[in-house]
Amino acid sequence: MSIEFLLTSLVVVLLPGTGVIYTLAIGLGQGMRASVVAAFGCTLGIVPHIVASIVGLSAILHTSAVAFEVVRYLGVAYLIYMAWSISRESGALQMPERQTRMSALRIIRSGILLNVLNPKLSLFFLAFLPQFVDTGAAGSTVVMLGLALVFMAMTLAVFVGYGACAALARDHVISRPGVMKWLRRSFAGAFGLLGLKLALADR
Fold first, then answer.
1. How remote is the C-alpha of 198 from its chain's centroid?
2. Do the Cβ atoms of 126 and 53 come closer than 8 Å?
3. Is the pTM of this model over 0.85?
4. Which of 167, 26, 186, 51 is nearest to 108 (CA)?
5. For a designed S-S bond to 121, which of 41, 45, 49, 52 qualifies (C-beta 3.0 to 4.6 A apart)?
6. Residue 89 has what pLDDT?
7. Residue 197 and residue 11: Cα distance in Å, rounded?
């Protein structure tokens, strides 16, 4: 495993995306434990893309316009749904007096769907992993699986870190209704913009 792979993976994982935004929102709205669950769900959502890349299924998304568009617009629809869900006062970012705990299953399911319904991730891993593997050598599949597991571990660690930061700031944020309202709109707007970006993205 090369230092180039580790550094590149770290930069990719640190870049704010749907998973980071979701984990931050859960951390602020539900606390530290829930943010760890959210990070775990988002990490699990990477698994199908990694498997697809290793077995070559992501090539279908690359070559089939119909398959790509179907997955993409399912992803767009889910991002819009997440924007609407967070914008509601009964969503993930609730005022303390209205606080209801989201179940771990619901948090994990949302995190998984956010990443599963992003076809760009499959194409990313299809282009990313082979750069650090001699695909013609024996055992290359095992090596790619190893790299993928390292990438997932880094994703989980970084997302837990993001969630912890959000959870630490929670007490200072939830006591200020105006700040909570602004954050709710900001997170909803971020998901809406990510949905728009995915809708307008080129294959």
1. 14
2. yes
3. no
4. 26
5. 49
6. 53
7. 20
Q: What does the pLDDT read at residue 30?
A: 83
Maximal C-alpha separation, the chain: 60
Mapping DSSP onto H, E and C, the string for 135-191 reads CCCCCHHHHHHHHHHHHHHHHHHHHHHHHHHHHHHHHHHHCCHHHHHHHHHHHHHHH
- 102 closest CA partner among 78, 77, 80, 82: 82
Q: Which long-range contacts (CB under 8 A, 24 or more apart) does 60-69 make?
A: 61/119, 61/122, 61/123, 62/123, 62/126, 62/203, 65/203, 68/119, 68/203
Measure the CA–CA gap between 28 and 1, rounded to whole angstroms: 36
- Tokens 């179907």, residue located: 70
Predicted confidence at residue 174, as pLDDT, reads: 61
Q: CA 105 to CA 44: how far, in whole Å? A: 13
DSSP sequence for 102-136: PPHHHHHHHHHHHHHT-HHHHHHHHHHGGGGS-TT
For 120-146, what is each residue's pLDDT tens digit? 777 777 767 767 776 556 666 788 888
Do 116 and 43 contact (CB within 8 A), yes or no? Answer: no
Using the predicted structure, report yes or no on whether residue 86 has a pLDDT greater than 70.
Answer: no
> Residue 2, SS3?
coil
